[in-house]
Write a structure and sequence with these properties.
The complex is a heterodimer of chains A (616) and B (74). Chain A contains 27 helices and nine strands. By secondary structure, chain A is of the alpha/beta class. In chain A, the strands form two sheets. Chain A has a six-stranded mixed β-sheet with strand order 2-3-1-4-5-7, with helices on both faces. Chain A has a two-stranded antiparallel ribbon with strand order 6-8. The longest helix of chain A is centred in the middle third of the chain and has 48 residues. The radius of gyration of chain A is 27 Å and the shape is elongated. Chain B is an alpha+beta fold and 74 residues long. The chains are: A alpha/beta (616), B alpha+beta (74). Chains A and B meet through helix 4, helix 11, helix 12, helix 16 and strand 9 of A and helix 1, strand 5 and helix 2 of B.
């Protein structure tokens, strides 16, 4: 049974009697800001194709408003398009957001929705930027040619929102491609909706299967006609009066040109290092962890708990011991992780919101090609620096199974997540920039080696880069803060239970004596091969619970700089956290999942031992 | 007649043929179809070719650019 065949009201829980208003638009047109403005609830604002994978819905008066992933057209080229397609096919009204700067690209989707025969209204967004770029659009004429209401808006400044709300009631079916009519008559005898019929004509296999009919080979013909129609409309309504080259265009070019792009990339990475690794990991964490959590909070909670139970009792250990549920878990969570995660997401949101990421994809395409990937894979990799679990899920947007496997391995083995980076930065920064460079180079070499190796051995062919470069813009403060808030909150919700669970498991291991037994078993490896103290074993075991947990464990040990470095490298390459392992098995199956798990163990200890010998 | 990877920065070309139906469909959505005139606005060494048409910019991997044939327009 195909997903499309399901009744949408059951799939995403919508009462059948409610009218479904659906927000539709290309990636990066500010759709989520509209969602927020129309419903009053904030939802993640994305600037990169592929980051709004979840579906957001909210009540809108008597009706329900549903957001869809940003897509360039309705079809089934990838997962997001399938999700968007399924929602659009069930829409009562489509609210189509169009980027006024990108009208030629965006109207293709608009015309497709109109051809589907769904009542629509168009919000022509970012009118301010279009005006600054010297583009004049005859809105009235555009509305007449499309046959649907068109409302000029600047969503981030709340301009045109009230007018859009009024226009939703006046949504109309628009002027479809007249040549489609005969073709519709031919297949709509089977009693399928006009929207479904169009997708069948355009060769959508899944929709055709639902209706027990054969997909038609007319996609290219219909697409070309639609493209020509859109181009004609644009020619009639748009005037470009821009005279001089804009600064953002120049900057956009610099960002992809290696000569200037690589320095820009390093500057961006260094700025991130300074902000997250120095400012947050040292200055802020000193206050939140050492002063507040480890100082005031620990004293308060231990004296409180030990009033009711003895310090040496099992309950005492479990609640307020070295790895206690009320001591270690909240101290690490709020003192250390929270500020680091917020700092990281702030930096990532700025990169996302400015339109820098697709340019980065173009810049690194050449390098990723030799690893069997293309520039697009930089999305999951960058996301991996946020949360590897989340990144593994987004490997779905890569073009082939081969690419998805390579990206998953690279993520699982070499990419540290935000929490882990934070802790790593916190430990490395005091050692000086040299140690940071050695750490970075080691991980980088492993990254390249694994990718090159897999590209050689794996069969098949990887897909090529084909990506849209949206205009560079200054990140909007409101978007960045809101995005950081949403993501940090989601992260903490996911992390907190695992931290508590980890605290319980480790306390159990310790009280039962299993921890020292494990330490004895693994210590030849830890002490003899990696030249680390016995206790480092605890960090490795904790690292399976959450990767950052492992690194955080090194905080409390007195290590030489070289030992710290080796410990961090091993923990970075070591098995990914439980959540990531579960997602990997789900996405890639048991066999590939356990290969990655076992492979990362071997690589971690092997590289760690070699590094220990090199730097001593 | 040449391929897109041979085009120099700043040159205007007419797209003659694009391989693979799926890529053709994606390109049409971005406004790039056979017969359309585009400008090569950027070319990375051994890397992607960036073409532009109006305010629309597309980055195309080198491997794909090698398979797209074009006619030099000016």
């Amino acid at each position: 049974m195909q997903r499309h065949c399901h009744d949408l009201t059951a799939t995403i829980e919508i009462p059948a009697n409610k009218k479904k208003l659906v927000l539709v638009g290309n990636p990066n047109v500010g759709k989520s800001v509209f969602f927020n403005e129309l419903t009053g609830l904030y939802v993640d604002v994305s600037n990169f194709p592929g980051t709004t994978v979840e579906i957001h819905k909210a009540p809108y008066g008597e009706d329900i408003l549903i957001d869809t992933p940003g897509v360039y057209g309705v079809s089934s080229f990838n997962d997001e398009e399938r999700v968007a397609r399924d929602i659009i096919l069930h829409a009562d009204v489509v609210i189509n957001i169009v980027d006024a700067l990108h009208i030629e690209r965006d109207l293709f989707l608009t015309q497709q929705v109109i051809d589907m025969g769904i009542p629509a209204v168009v919000a022509l967004n970012m009118m301010d930027e279009a005006k600054d770029s010297g583009i004049i659009i005859d809105v009235e004429k555009l509305s007449k040619l499309l046959g649907v209401p068109v409302i000029p808006t600047v969503a981030v400044a709340r301009e045109g929102i009230a007018e859009l709300k009024t226009a939703i009631g006046k949504a109309s079916c628009g002027n479809a491609d007249p040549m489609l009519e005969d073709e519709f008559k031919r297949i709509s005898a089977d009693g399928i909706s006009r929207a479904d019929a169009l997708l069948v004509l355009e060769g959508d296999e899944e929709v055709a299967l639902c209706h027990d009919t054969a997909p038609q080979p007319l996609r290219e013909e219909i697409y070309l006609r639609r493209r020509l129609r859109v181009n004609e409309i644009v020619e009639q309504v748009c005037k470009d009066v821009s005279a001089k080259k804009k600064l953002n265009k120049t900057l956009g070019q610099w960002a992809v040109r290696p000569f200037t792009g690589i320095p820009i990339l390093f500057a961006a990475l260094y700025a991130m290092y300074w902000f997250v690794g120095v400012f947050i990991a040292q200055t802020v964490v000193e206050i939140t962890e050492e002063l507040i959590m480890d100082g005031m909070y620990r004293e308060f909670i231990t004296s409180f708990i030990f009033r009711f139970t003895a310090e040496e009792s099992f309950l005492g250990e479990l609640l307020a011991g070295e790895f206690g549920v009320l001591t270690m878990a909240p101290i690490y969570l709020f003192g250390l992780l929270l500020p680091l995660v917020i700092g990281f997401y702030l930096a990532l949101s700025v990169m996302e919101d400015s339109g820098y990421l697709p340019r980065l994809a173009t810049l690194v395409d050449r390098m990723l090609t030799s690893l069997g990937l293309n520039g697009r894979a930089i999305i999951p990799i960058i996301l991996g620096f946020g949360c590897v679990t989340m990144a593994v899920i987004t490997t779905r947007l890569l073009g082939s199974k081969r690419e998805r496997f390579i990206a998953t391995v690279l993520l699982g083995v070499t990419v540290p997540c935000s929490a882990q980076i934070g802790v790593i930065m916190g430990l490395i920064a005091p050692l000086g920039f040299n140690y940071f460079v050695i750490y970075f180079l080691t991980i980088f070499i492993i990254f390249v080696a694994i990718g090159t190796f897999l590209n050689k051995v794996l069969q098949g062919e990887s897909t090529h880069l084909l990506i849209d470069l949206p205009p560079l813009r200054l990140p909007r403060f409101r978007n960045v803060v809101a995005k950081t808030y949403t993501k940090s909150q989601a992260f903490m919700k996911e992390a907190a239970p695992l931290f508590v669970l980890a605290a319980v498991v480790i306390t159990l291991l310790q009280v039962s004596g299993a921890l020292s037994w494990l330490q004895d078993v693994i210590s030849p490896l830890t002490v003899g091969w990696l030249w680390l103290p016995r206790e480092a074993t605890v960090s490795f075991i904790m690292g399976i619970m959450r990767r950052d947990f492992g690194a955080a464990g090194l905080y409390n040990m007195s290590l030489t700089p070289a030992q710290t470095l080796v410990g961090l490298v091993v923990i970075t390459l070591f098995v990914p956290c439980i959540a990531t392992i579960m997602v990997m098995v789900k996405e890639r199956g048991w066999k590939e999942g356990s290969y990655i798990w076992f492979g990362s163990l071997v690589i971690a200890f092997f590289v760690g031992g070699i590094l220990a010998r090199i730097i001593s | 007649m040449t391929t897109l990877d041979q085009v120099k920065r700043g040159q205007k070309v007419e797209i003659y043929s694009i391989p693979d139906e799926l890529i053709r469909a994606q390109a049409i959505r971005f406004g790039v179809a056979e017969g359309v005139i585009v400008t090569c606005s950027e070319k990375l060494p051994a890397g992607p070719v960036v073409i532009s048409k109006g305010h629309q910019e597309l980055a195309i991997g080198r491997g794909l650019a090698k398979k797209i044939t074009v006619k030099v327009a000016s």
